[in-house]
């Protein structure tokens, strides 16, 4: 039982040490992730004003300053605003 507890504590220590190293190495304040290949564009993600789902900006429907996941939600929200 003691060996199992020691093993779990060592794993937790390794986990927190790696997290600390990742935070320490990230001086830019940006999120770390896979590097973007040359020529590839990073696309923004927008939240649907109607249902809250996250949609890539290229697929989102923009009405005025709001983004929607599809035409139906854009029409429904526009209808509730103007009527």
Structure overview:
This protein has 83 residues and is of the alpha+beta class. Helices cover 43% and strands 14% of the residues. It has helices at residues 2-25, 71-82, and strands spanning 45-47, 54-56, 61-63, 66-68. The strands form 2 sheets. Strands 1-2 form a two-stranded antiparallel ribbon. Strands 3-4 form a two-stranded antiparallel sheet. Strand 3 (61-63) and strand 4 (66-68) form a beta hairpin.
User: Shape, please?
Assistant: elongated
Element-by-element helix/strand order: HEEEEH
Query: Which percent band covers the strand fraction?
Result: 5-15%
Q: Mean pLDDT, rounded to whole units?
A: 83
Uncertain segments are none
Number of strands: 4
From the helix content, strand content and strand pairing, which structural class follows? Answer: alpha+beta
**What is the count of helical runs?**
2
Q: Which radius of gyration do the C-alpha atoms yield? A: 22 Å
What does the main sheet amount to?
2 strands, antiparallel
End-to-end separation: 68 Å
Helix coverage percent of residues? Answer: 40-55%
Give the spatial strand order of the biggest sheet. Answer: 1-2
């Amino acid at each position: 039982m003691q060996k199992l507890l020691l093993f779990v504590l060592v794993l937790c220590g390794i986990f927190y040490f790696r997290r600390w190293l990742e935070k320490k190495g990230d001086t830019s304040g940006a999120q770390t992730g896979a590097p973007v290949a040359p020529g590839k564009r990073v696309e923004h993600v927008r939240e649907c004003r109607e249902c809250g789902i996250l949609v890539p900006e290229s697929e989102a429907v923009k009405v005025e300053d709001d983004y929607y996941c599809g035409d139906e939600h854009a029409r429904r929200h526009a209808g509730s605003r103007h009527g």
